[in-house]
Amino acid sequence: MARRVSNGQKALTTVLAWAVGLLIFFPILWTVLMSFHAEGDAIKSPFEMLSSPWTLASYGEVQERSNYTLHFFNSVVISVGSTVLALVIAIPGAWAMAFVPGRKTKDLLMWMLSTKMMPAVGVLIPMYLGFKNLGLLDTRTGLVIIMTLINLPIIIWMLYTYFKEIPGEILEAARMDGASLRSEIIHVLTPMAVPGIASTVLLNIILAWNEAFWTLQLTTHNAAPLTTFIASYSSPEGLFYAKLSAASTMAIAPILIMGWFSQKQLVRGLTFGAVK
Amino acid sequence: MTVTLRALLGASALLALSGAAMAETEITVATVNNGDMVRMQGLMDDFYKKHPDIKVNWVTLEENVLRQKVTTDIATKGGQFDVLTIGTYEVPIWGKQGWLVPLDDLPASYDKADLLPAIAGGLTVDGHLMASPFYGESSMVMYRTDLMEKAGLKMPEKPTWDDIKKAAAAMTDKSKEQYGICLRGKAGWGENMAFLTAMSNSFGARWFDENWKPQFDQAAWHDTLAFYLDLMTNYGPPGASNNGFNENLALFQQGHCGMWIDATVAASFVTGKDSTVADKVGFALAPDMGKGKRGNWLWAWALAIPAGSQKVDAAKTFIDWATNKDYLALVASKEGWANVPPGTRTSLYANPEYAKVPFAKMTLDSINSADPTHPTVDPVPYVGVQFAAIPEFQGIGTQVGQIFSAVLAGTTSLEDGLKQAQDSTTAAMTKAGYIK
To answer: Nearest CA to CA, how far is A232 from chain B (Å)?
Structure first.
């Protein structure tokens, strides 16, 4: 039975939700607004900045100075490539943990998660040397591999949670009908877990897109994604807010648009299995 | 048909051969996003015209990210970079470690003898030039001529700290958001500690004595910090503990500061198109206390070749192009004399055209009055004016910077701050093996 909600409560909740939403969105909004002003105006007080002339000059300068297309292409390859590779590894892994758990499965899951607790800088030198010796420095392949490794624990955890919601009997029935293990995972399990897999994919593309430690450390030019593009516009001596904001807006726009169009899928996946 | 095919094959072979003859050497240059560096990237056509066989890839990063990245690369001999933009802090340390390629064999036209002695001295290790200066800077007083005139004061060319305090008091009108003085307060070895270390030199303080014992428990440091707090509390802008170079630049450009003591490179910004007070700015040497040292620092961004580079010859060719006299003339012809990278060459300051730039003389005088090998009144075991060129200084300097920033914010008392600085620096220096 639905709970009765008064109009006053509805209005209050709506205002509160909008206030929280705007508060979270405000830094992005301000970044976009600053990007449309001259450097001298971007540092003024908020009112003065908004009343000063609007300009596309910062976008023009950023376009002129940087190879945005190359950085964008690298970001797409690294984030999509690492997510696909991680899925190929994570789906069978999560299947095993969800449907044929062993005595140490829980420990294994916790151990995987614990790797996320170590500060990345702690393994910078060994990783750097490894990449150097394997010829992977400043390559998209190297970045795809490291992003896969970084996000694998989260992907396995998410998929494991989704798979646990799928009744094991359905898979048993498929087995009774003679489905091989491969068919069982590809043709039975995966289609049923599509919302969960989709939200995992989206979340991991976003995480890989925004990753700014390894991508900055392990690339120079050829494989540098949009994070290095942004980092190149901060300056210790001289005004840079407008140009940095323009670069940030250009870097986050694709992922914002993708998130906007796929938000239904994302919410559906994240709440998948929440109601039994 | 056969003839056509042969002709095509022949042409392809010729193309392949000529391609091999014109094979490009690609070099990667790591640099910071400062105005002069960005300008250089815009003038690369001249380089490609002179050296069509070398292609330059730029990696531009924020200063601290760049520092961390090139340190990792150079320590592991990663070889990702062929030319590094590094400062006078890194050069003595990395040069001693053998991480840099000496630049003794640059062509005669480079004219090493023309480099400003103070700048070249900071980039030379055991007699070898380890990095070529791209631009040099010191610090000086920038002040509002209109406000000084209104207050009935005249800024001496070589002011004392008492002159500065007097002027700050006269120009402060907090009801109009007009503050007598703006100084760095943001924590960091290259932020507030660059200013405070240089200031402390003029008060007779030093980071370490000859036995590497920290000196924050001495009266000179107490006097330095007390004077700084007095200035900032009474005549400085609110929230100054968050202000670094860019924040103070914004305040000065918008007319909120009567004086600003900071990098000489700021002169072109405060007199530039974004400044609302561009035509009301005067310059003076950094202040002193009559003890023989002024409170100005010395810094240079310089180009160096890491020992791991496989393309040393092409890297040297690039460094020669970017830092020789012809490059200065190129910038002058394209962007005007005011935009020429300052503070590297004697010949630039002998040029009558450059002498017309309002801040040229003061920049040169400021650079010449700094001595990185004898930075303090009393002797010290380190090189560097606003830093001690030892690997541990980044960490120690930032920690002390955080303590002094907290003192400025009022969350720690002056006495407690100095004690904390003394204790933490002593612990770090003992751990690093300097204090037995």
So the answer is: 4
| B406-B409-B410-B414 Cα dihedral, nearest 10 degrees | 50
Contact of B261 with B295, CB cutoff 8 Å:
yes
Q: Is B363 among the domain residues? A: no
CB-CB neighbors (< 8 A) of B244 in chain A? 236
**Secondary structure element (H or E) that encloses residue B134, with its range:** strand B132-144
Say if residue A50 is in the same domain as residue A138: no
Count chain A–chain B contacts defined by CB atoms under 8 A: 93
Give the DSSP letter of residue B80: -
Which CATH number goes with the domain that contains B121?
3.40.190.10
Name which of A132, A217, A236 is nearest B63 (Cβ-Cβ). A236
Which domain, by its residues, includes B338? 23-130+299-355
CATH number of A181's domain = 1.10.3720.10
- What average pLDDT does range B146-170 have in this prediction? 97
Single pTM value for the model: 0.84
pLDDT at A1: 55
Indicate whether B407 belongs to any domain: yes
> Average pLDDT of each block of 10 consecutive residues along chain A (276 residues)?
78 94 94 93 86 94 92 97 96 91 90 87 93 95 96 93 88 87 87 87 92 94 94 84 95 90 74 52
Is A126 part of the contact surface with chain B (CB cutoff 8 Å)? no
Can you tell me the distance from the alpha carbon of A103 to that of A113, in angstroms, rounded to the nearest whole number? Answer: 18
pLDDT at position A273: 54
Cβ contact, residue pair B59, A128, below 8 Å: no
For B80, which of A65, A138, A239 is closest by C-beta distance?
Answer: A138
B84 and B206 part of one domain = no
Q: Is residue B100 included in any domain, yes or no?
A: yes
CA B134 to chain CA centroid, Å, is 10
Whether the CB of A128 is below 8 Å from some CB of chain B: the reply is yes
Are A227 and A215 a contacting pair, CB within 8 Å?
A: yes
Taking the CA of residue B271 as centre, how many other CA atoms within 13 Å lie in the half-sphere pointing to its CB? 19
Express the helix, strand and coil content of chain B in percent, nearest 5 each.
50, 15, 35
Whether B144 shows a pLDDT value over 80: the answer reads: yes
Answer whether residue A119 is part of any domain.
yes
Binned at pLDDT 50, 70 and 90, residue B1 comes out as very low
Residue B381, in any domain of the structure? no
